[in-house]
Design a protein that fits this description.
Elements: E1 9-12, H1 18-29, E2 33-38, H2 42-54, E3 58-63, H3 69-83, E4 88-91, H4 107-134, E5 138-143, H5 146-150, H6 157-177, E6 182-189, H7 195-198, H8 202-209, H9 220-231, E7 242-245
Helix pairs in contact: 1-2, 1-9, 3-4, 4-6
């Protein structure tokens, strides 16, 4: 099924750890040329690149602060220059900027969260779309969150709002891309065993896991595997959809 990924040029944002790192590694194992985007996790990103190269894979490191418009806007063009094009974009980077109660939420926290989780993925998708439109198509996968389903908690309302907006962007881009063989989908992860969720603390995480029908957190590979499927020939007739990887929630 994944032979179609051989030689594909795949940019994964937020690829220094968690879901992004796992996704980049799996694509590289299937023969794709992987762009490993990172911001603060340069050491981890470099270790991932070495791991990929030691297995005979190909990749390149791309550092960019997605809250900086100049760095953000140049990310896709830099990848295209380095890889010779872009066939797949995995918009994975994201997270809340500040987690205050909504009554105390500052404007910078709100604007930063919207910028990182909605504006940046849209800009990156738009730049990838431009290239794909002129070169036979491609795939875009936007990583959302279960916060979009429930609206976020009292301390993550802004994050849920941003991810809900990203899911709307997916639907619009999918309609626009259909005529150009550009397929755009969303994955909505639930509680995944990543450094971000571990920051909740053991007790809070355990309490949260009890609300999941499968009674366990997911693994980064659960999300990464779906990214591969949607980018492969198995996803040839799928666009404009949101897929939940939530353990039954």
């Amino acid at each position: 099924m994944y032979r179609s990924l051989m030689g594909k040029r795949v940019l994964v944002t937020g690829a220094s750890s968690g879901i992004g790192a796992c996704t980049a590694e799996l694509f590289a194992r299937e023969g794709a040329v992987v762009g490993i985007h990172h911001h603060t996790g340069e050491g981890s990103a470099r270790e991932l690149l070495v791991k990929i190269q030691d297995r005979g894979g190909k990749g390149l490191l791309l550092k960019a602060d997605l809250l900086d418009s100049r760095q953000r806007d140049g990310l896709v063009p830099r990848f295209i220059t380095g890889a010779g094009g872009i066939d797949v974009l995995i918009n994975n980077a994201g997270g809340p900027v500040g987690q205050e109660h909504f009554l105390d939420l500052t404007v910078p926290s709100w604007e930063g969260t919207i910028s990182l989780n909605l504006t940046a993925p849209f800009i990156l998708a738009r730049e990838a779309f431009r290239w794909m439109k002129e070169h036979g198509g491609g795939r875009i996968v936007n990583i959302s969150s279960i916060a979009a389903l429930y609206g976020g908690s009292e301390t993550s309302l802004h994050y849920g709002a941003a991810k809900s907006g990203l899911e709307a962007v997916t639907k619009s881009l999918a309609r626009a891309g259909a005529a150009h063989n550009i397929l755009v989908n969303t994955i909505q992860p639930g509680v995944i065993d990543t450094p971000a969720h571990r920051k909740m603390g053991r007790r809070s995480l355990d309490n949260r896991v009890r609300t999941i029908p499968l009674r366990r957190p997911g693994k980064p590979r659960d999300v990464a595997g779906l990214c591969l499927f949607l980018a492969s020939e198995g996803g040839d007739y799928i666009t404009g959809q949101t897929f939940r990887v939530t353990g039954g929630e």
